[in-house]
């Protein structure tokens, strides 16, 4: 059953010359959810987002928000708002004036503009900096201003293009918690473009994995991670071994892959290295057929009986932990 504010893409296509950057993509973004468009560079995620925002014209297909076909509507009349990667704040305006800018364009009077801007600045927790200029803020603070500025138009869908990529790793994790909190508080649909699978898994209610201008798989983070449908998704999400298995290929999670020095197991491999990552150790191996494999072991299990590079190991897993991948 479609919700009144779902956003539907129907065979949405963008061609540049003969090449399709976005190739007949159909998807329903359920309203009020945190959605991540995830995929490698060039897969068409930003083009998809820009078409939803109205900053790029669709070659064919439709974009429908609730009851409205917004495919050809101007950006400001769509019910969407975009937060840009480069925050694009006006340097000569104060923080609150930046946030209130679109209200000024609409002719809203000054006291009301300020009141609404301050409400949003409180929500993103930088109200005390309302009178500063953007240059007097840190990158993380500028981003909060950009977020408040996008939200002041009361969009039904907020579009975010790699919003965390300019931040250092520590701030990135903090802002990601903030984004999730804001989305929950507002109940607005967020569509967030990222090429980071960790980011997508941490934030999303729904992950949409793109590859070559198409949607490869969509679902909850657990669905996509636990049951990758294709080799591309298994490799892109990481943490899986992809193995040839008679008729086709299978995926097995690296943390469900067992190693032993001999005995029962599906195949034999040579250890090529071990990477200590704090709580776990990732053991890298090469199978007899040349396939690169890995096993994630707890640090306690690994150090109780370490595998040295060059060691021959037997690799095994439970049958229930293997997933057949689509051709
Ligand atoms: N204006 C343009 N003219 C021609 N080709 C373009 C244009 N914009 C994008 N493309 C091509 O369309 C494809 C998809 O680009 P897009 O920017 O949507 O990818 P992306 O997944 O967002 O990548 P990234 O993560 O690097 O931003 C790429 O092959 C890109 O080269």
UniProtKB/TrEMBL annotation:
GO terms for cellular component: ATP-binding cassette (ABC) transporter complex. GO terms for molecular function: ATP binding; ATP hydrolysis activity; transmembrane transporter activity. GO terms for biological process: quaternary ammonium group transport. InterPro entries: AAA+_ATPase (IPR003593), ABC_SmlMolc_Importer (IPR050093), ABC_transporter-like_ATP-bd (IPR003439), ABC_transporter-like_CS (IPR017871), Mo/tungstate-bd_C_term_dom (IPR008995), P-loop_NTPase (IPR027417), Transp-assoc_OB_typ2 (IPR013611). Residues 7-237 form the ABC transporter domain. Keywords: ATP-binding, Nucleotide-binding, Transport. It comes from the Bacteria. It holds the Pfam family ABC_tran. This is Putative spermidine/putrescine transport system ATP-binding protein. It comes from Rubrimonas cliftonensis.
